[in-house]
């Protein structure tokens, strides 16, 4: 009898609640603090930017938070996502390890991002918001919010870093297909944008500038809110639907992971798969959780734990997290979603409490792993997800060397259909690895805000 | 209780046999004939180009043909594909009709094409072939054969029409990711290519030239065969896994289609979904099968039934089919996969026997339908599939006008991730509809080969 490749879950078994790791961590997740006063900031302080439904989740220590039925109803368009056994990759590696992956690329926008975008759109709609404004770099979050906002009748405006706006027209076209407006940042629509354009009309923009524009617009209009696609507690919370589903599917597969792997940028796709397993780890289960980041932006492997701004523009509250300093400018790489100076405070806490480990890889070795994966399993991974795959292959080869039949589960967070330029550069030998600039990191860390908390 | 959105089928229920409509048609499917002699051609005549496993299927009148286990094993990477109820589209149209779609875009290459590519790669491998050569226009077939060939250890060379090679670098990158070589056609690798390049070094190429190059290479080397992605009987056969799965899933959904819809270019995705339902129609079931083509290339709605060449280069055997004449040059549209002058002989026979109907739409109305679909259901359709969607919406609106709760099933044959330029042109108002040139059609039909058969 042939063994199964995919482990599907029927819609009626889709999780009914998100899991909140904050309920089980050995210590509290430090709250955001005001950069001027050093005072903790609560939901009311952030109310101009986010709806209360989201802010309550941000501060919650409840273990389970119900997924509203309208959100589950949209999830049904692609969820439960498949759990797949990578049998061909196992055979190619000649490893005794079992390799499973949770495939989030089946979502309409092609990644895990809609899991939170749909929830955020729902809470905004429920509180009478008419318009969502956000920023996007590579475009994954922008297209996810465009998709989600449209379903709830919200106007969505995405400020896209100008250089990406020009280089990634297909991502922009996807946002427009979902009915959103995509504006190159810096733009003349905001004071922040106009200030940049006055001195540099040809500015390529940056994620920091785009955040400033989006936040300015959200704060200035009553009917408008802001939405963020990673880092914050509520985003990690929404992504846990991935891990809760995976647990049910691994049960169907009659397997249990010894190792859980995800790539980390802001931290949310890793959190989504790994937090439920960290709960089991705290309950005594032997499981290693590994976050994989790029060598060029080694937040967990080289960044200290500190209070820092969430943005390069230094407009946000301070968050306690692993950080390279908000001044740190990672070199341009193809995994745009992993080029973030900070890390989700909850993931940072998980690191502090020994619930996870972290490692870093260069991008060319990640692309080599992604190509091997595509040739065995068919799916062309997003550049971000390729980091997880590189770690999976290394662990599977270790299992081979040690003769251990361990079970590995990873999050294939998205497909690479909108990132084929990166593959072209890789095949053309144009992709390079930059040695890490330790001096730049030290200089950046010296500018960390000095706040007594 | 919430009703289901997706109807999944477990892998152990994946069909074990393809369905061959030739077994049930009221008359025989006319064989291909030699253009010089007018004599029927059998498997042995085509053996230089195709493996015998495939040629036996081409001429078979067996009702069921077993799907080899290694083919089913590759199918498991994405099959059974989901059957989805388009509840949001139904609500947006305010129609009493139930709309279901079979989603073939979940395959690694993003369309239904791998259903046949995997089978063809298997039979070639089994007969000791080392290398497959094919042509591709938009790139769907080329990337599917690249994927399939790699899994069976075959070298794959794809001759891609030069203008597409230059305009669609991402499709080319996908083929290279799967390990295939993609060569712009005309190329200096063949006599056919060199002849063109001598007179026109900057030739944009054409599908006809690319076919000539691929066929020349396959015929000239013992270890090399050719592979075709649509039109032929064996390709339609392989695609019937779509319809056989859909039948099982519609049963799970407790629904039965009154109307089955697919877009038609060469005819294979429509055949794949509709042929099993035509069998039921011949057994007395009331079901309408509708093939939808572009107004710019109206093979079924304006082309007569005649013996004609399969290619513009007039190199292939003659096939009896609906045709616009192999000299007919449809205007450039974004649904490249539907720009074919002929039609699968089996689909043409189904038309002759009254088993199906056909209709044609302009591309802008199809893109409007595709955008509406994407905003309700999330999935961005391939330009080809948008033709099916336009017909579905029209039928659903007819049901509304007539107050009839009919059940509509269509084939969403692929996603549009590699076709976003078409959406950009649509949003920019750059997409136009060309009035059909009846005079050009008449001129083309006058050059149909005069063969007494």
From TrEMBL, chains A, B:
Purpose of the protein: The beta subunit is responsible for the synthesis of L-tryptophan from indole and L-serine.
Complex formation: Tetramer of two alpha and two beta chains.
Gene responsible for this protein: trpB
Pfam entry (one): PALP
Modified sites of kind N6-(pyridoxal phosphate)lysine: 113
GO terms for cellular component: cytoplasm
Keywords: Amino-acid biosynthesis, Aromatic amino acid biosynthesis, Lyase, Pyridoxal phosphate, Tryptophan biosynthesis
EC nos: 4.2.1.20
Name listed for the protein in its UniProt record: Tryptophan synthase beta chain
Biological source species: Roseospira navarrensis
Metabolic or biological pathway, per its Swiss-Prot or TrEMBL entry: Amino-acid biosynthesis; L-tryptophan biosynthesis; L-tryptophan from chorismate: step 5/5
MF GO annotations: L-serine hydro-lyase (adding indole, L-tryptophan-forming) activity; pyridoxal phosphate binding; tryptophan synthase activity
Superkingdom of origin: Bacteria
Keyword Amino-acid biosynthesis part of the UniProt annotation: yes
HAMAP family given in the database record: Trp_synth_beta (MF_00133)
NCBIfam families: PRK12391.1 (NF009057), trpB_rel (TIGR01415)
The keyword Ribosomal protein appears for this protein: no
Domain Tryptophan synthase beta chain-like PALP: 77-414
Catalytic activity: (1S,2R)-1-C-(indol-3-yl)glycerol 3-phosphate + L-serine = D-glyceraldehyde 3-phosphate + L-tryptophan + H2O
Family from the record: Belongs to the TrpB family.
Cofactor dependence: pyridoxal 5'-phosphate
């Amino acid at each position: 009898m042939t063994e199964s490749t995919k482990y599907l879950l029927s819609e009626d078994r889709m999780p009914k609640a998100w899991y909140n790791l904050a309920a089980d961590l050995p210590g509290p997740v430090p709250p955001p603090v005001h950069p001027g006063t050093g005072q903790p900031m609560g939901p009311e302080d952030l109310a101009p930017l986010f709806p209360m439904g989201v802010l309550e989740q941000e501060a919650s220590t409840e273990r389970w938070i119900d997924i509203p039925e309208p959100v589950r109803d949209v999830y049904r368009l692609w969820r439960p996502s498949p759990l797949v056994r990578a049998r061909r990759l196992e055979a190619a590696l000649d490893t005794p390890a079992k390799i499973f992956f949770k495939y989030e690329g089946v979502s309409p926008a092609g990644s895990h991002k809609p899991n939170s975008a749909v929830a955020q759109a729902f809470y905004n709609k429920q509180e009478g918001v008419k318009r969502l404004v956000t920023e996007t770099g590579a475009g994954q979050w922008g297209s996810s919010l465009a998709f989600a906002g449209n379903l709830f009748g919200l106007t969505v405006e995405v400020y896209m870093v100008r250089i990406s706006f020009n280089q990634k027209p297909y991502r922009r076209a996807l946002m427009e297909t979902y009915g959103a407006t995509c504006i190159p940042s810096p733009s003349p629509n905001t004071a922040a944008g106009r200030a940049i354009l006055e001195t540099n009309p040809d500015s390529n923009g940056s994620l920091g500038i785009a955040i400033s524009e989006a936040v300015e617009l959200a704060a200035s209009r009553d009917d408008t809110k802001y939405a963020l696609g990673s880092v914050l507690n509520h985003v990690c919370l929404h992504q846990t639907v991935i891990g809760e589903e995976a647990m049910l599917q691994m049960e169907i597969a009659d397997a249990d992971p010894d190792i859980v792997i995800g790539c980390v940028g802001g931290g949310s796709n890793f959190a989504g798969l790994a937090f439920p397993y960290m709960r089991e780890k705290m309950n005594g289960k032997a499981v290693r959780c590994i976050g994989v980041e790029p060598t060029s932006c080694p937040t967990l492997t080289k960044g200290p734990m500190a209070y820092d701004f969430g943005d390069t523009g230094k407009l946000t509250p301070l968050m306690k997290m692993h950080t390279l300093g908000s001044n740190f400018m990672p070199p341009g790489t193809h995994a745009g979603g992993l080029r973030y100076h900070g890390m989700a405070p909850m993931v940072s806490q998980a690191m502090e409490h020994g619930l996870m480990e972290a490692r870093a890889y260069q991008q060319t070795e990640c692309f080599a792993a992604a190509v091997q994966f595509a040739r065995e399993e068919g799916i062309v991974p997003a550049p971000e997800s390729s980091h997880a795959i590189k770690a999976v292959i290394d662990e599977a080869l270790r299992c081979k060397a040690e003769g251990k039949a361990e079970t590995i589960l990873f999050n294939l967070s998205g497909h690479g259909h909108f990132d084929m330029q990166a593959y072209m550069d890789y095949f053309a030998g144009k992709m390079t690895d930059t040695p890490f600039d330790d001096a730049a990191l030290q200089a950046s860390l010296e500018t960390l805000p000095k706040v007594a908390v």
